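Appendix B, Record 12. Input sequence as logged:
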Amino acid sequence: MNRLKAYFLKHKMRFVSTVTIVLGLLALGNIYVSLNINVTSNDECLWVGKKITPDSTAYFFEYVKNDGVAWQAGIRNRDQLISINKYIVRNDQQAQIILNSVKSGDYADYVIKKPDGTIINTKVKVKKLINFGALTFNISALIWLLIGFVVYTAKPDGRQQKLFILLSISFVLTTFFNFFPQNIKLFETIQNYPVSSLIIYILASAGASALPFTFLYFIWNFFKPIEFAQKKWVKSLFIILPALLFVYSMSLVVNLTNPDIQHLYNFRKYQNLTSVVSSITYIIAGITLVVIFFKEKDKQKRKPILLIILSFVLAIVVQIYISTIAPALADTIFNSPEYYFPVILLILVPMIYGYAIFKYHLLDVSEVVKNTIFYSIATAAVVAIYFLSVYGLGHSLSSLIGFGNEGFIAIVLFMIFAIRFQSTKEKALKFITQKFYPEEFAFQNVLIKFSNEISTVVGKENILNLTLNTFVNSLKLKKFAILLNNNSSGQLKLVRHFGFKQTNCELDLNDIQNYYDDNAQIKVFPEISRDIFRKLFGDKAEILTDEEVYTIVPLIVKSKVIGALLFGLKYSGSQFSGKDIELLYAAANQLAVAVENARLYQTEVEKQKIDHDLKIARNIQKGLLPSCIPDLNGFDICGVMVPAMHVGGDYYDLIPVDENKIFVAVGDVSGKGLSASLYMAKLQTIMQLYCKSGSTPKEILIEANKLLYNSLDAGSFITLSLALFDKEKMKVKVCRAGHLPLLITENGISKLLKTKGIALGLDKGPLFESNLEEIEIDLKDGQVFSFFSDGITEAMNENNELFGEERLLKIFDENYQNHSTMIMDLIENEIKKFIGNAEQHDDMSMVIVKTRF
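Logged structural output:
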């Protein structure tokens, strides 16, 4: 269903164009039917029925026109009509059908009975009586359709435009009743031609049922949408009422096999009902226009409203004339049809609408009119000039070169014509635009210049200032604003504006992004027009309406909305549409790219500054960590820390107490980056403060936990291994606060020593102390002690495999006899080789202590 909807929306112009062409052809056919087929034969008199017996009726002539066709045939008032073309007249409707079958100018055989009883055979010349009302309605419908198509083409997504084309289609569909020879034969026609006639009847009923309600709702949204009409229950009512009327019309043709007089009676009831509904809706529409006229204070905006009101007045005057004055002037319509001819003036009603729309730019049609008329004429003129030139030049050259080479000359000239045609046509169109549409010509030039300049401007503020200056000063816009994304709130906020009263105007980024995503595949330039503000922005639409915003063009970078441009009316007072929108989009795209480049440039500058600061911080952090000590009174020590980012949260330290004692600490702060490095610096300060003579690793960790518990953020913690190497006592005391096990290697055999303990900062004291275990190990010559963080064993390659403890143990088993620096280099190289091109995910730190006694 969604695919079908998307396909329809993408190709809706083709669909509407096809429907318009089909309906236009049918409307032309309908006019032909009104003029030539569905006309009433006229003998310039009336047949008046009189009951002779309860079961029979006789028909007598009345209002016989002096010197009319019946008069010339010897027929006078009070003569009785016996038969027409051998049909014994018992029903005036059937007799009229017989008479209608006679062509105009031919004669019908009448048998009449004089008041004295004399029977006379006579021939009556038949005239045809055109129904001027039906003809007027058919021509008006065609005009409505043409205007509606132009209006819709100008702005296919506009609510007013959609209502207008729907109104036009309803007008045309309603005229389909005219395809039936007469309404009195409606059900007989459906019976004889059930499929085609039923389809026509359904379409005609649909149009007649929808027409009055569509017209009223269009008026309620034509000039300025009435707030009352936007309520859901009102919209629902305007769907339900025509649907009920349509269902009623369809109920009249349920029994198609037995059409009777009751069907005809019901159909006339339906016609009367639609007439009453139409009258009510037209009266309401007229009252609405009068109210809108008096509420509008702008004299310029009053002019089109006044024109539409005048069209209503014209329609009322014509209706009054037809229903009162014309019958008084003519004894019957059959004898004096010319008195009813003024009904044709109703054709002026759609023309007045069209004039108001085109003259006052009510529905953005100037672009379509220009393209379809001026540009088409220009293109045709260029083609004509070229072909005439080719024709004349071809004849001239043929006479000089010889008549046998006409084909070759024609090919050469045509190729030259094809090459030069496009550029010549563009120049001609440019000339016409400059002369007849100076505002658009200036508009194009200004935006082209803006698009060229904006790419050379540096700095976001300069870009915004140039944009504001271009649209306000160069294009003379009275309302303009630029909104850009505020990343912190997800709102598009006002950053530049002109003519706005409320500077707190902002729109939700997601609303515009969703609209763009839904329409980007359907429309090349999906602008946001005023008629969908309420649907898209809710209550914020009132701010846009109050600020007289009519068009919103999103700023797009790689299908992402970064801002929006808000436009009022053009200097001429018309809305942006058609080619204007295309030019605005081109300018908006250039602006979006320029703003995004400025943002990226500023981000890059800030990033470079941060990188520089972090590089300094990395050097500072590196300076805080001790270097390798190949020979420290019997200890061969090497430490290294490789951060995953510029700075890291891993920590190691070597803190000598005296010439025989040294503390070795290796820790890991949860997380990475700058915050972890700050905690690392704090930990280092604590360690250097508490690692003094007379303190054991366990005592130091207990004190450190007390200090860190209240200073670490929720969820942060630090794991730490602390060891005190004492050469004098040949002992090493080790305490582990949740850190990785200690790796010990003796005589090529490595093992992991794991003691109890939880991380620093997780518990205030009792639990931490009760779980902390300190052990003591004898020192021997050639031992290797390795303290490391999880970044070593959890180093990951491109296949998401871990370096692991086994690889680490193997390196120590095979290289325990080497110096600590050599072992450290080997471990680093093995890890780099293992990781390959994979990214380092965690900080890596290690301290190797080897005894040499």
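Residues 531 and 649 are 57 Å apart (CA to CA).
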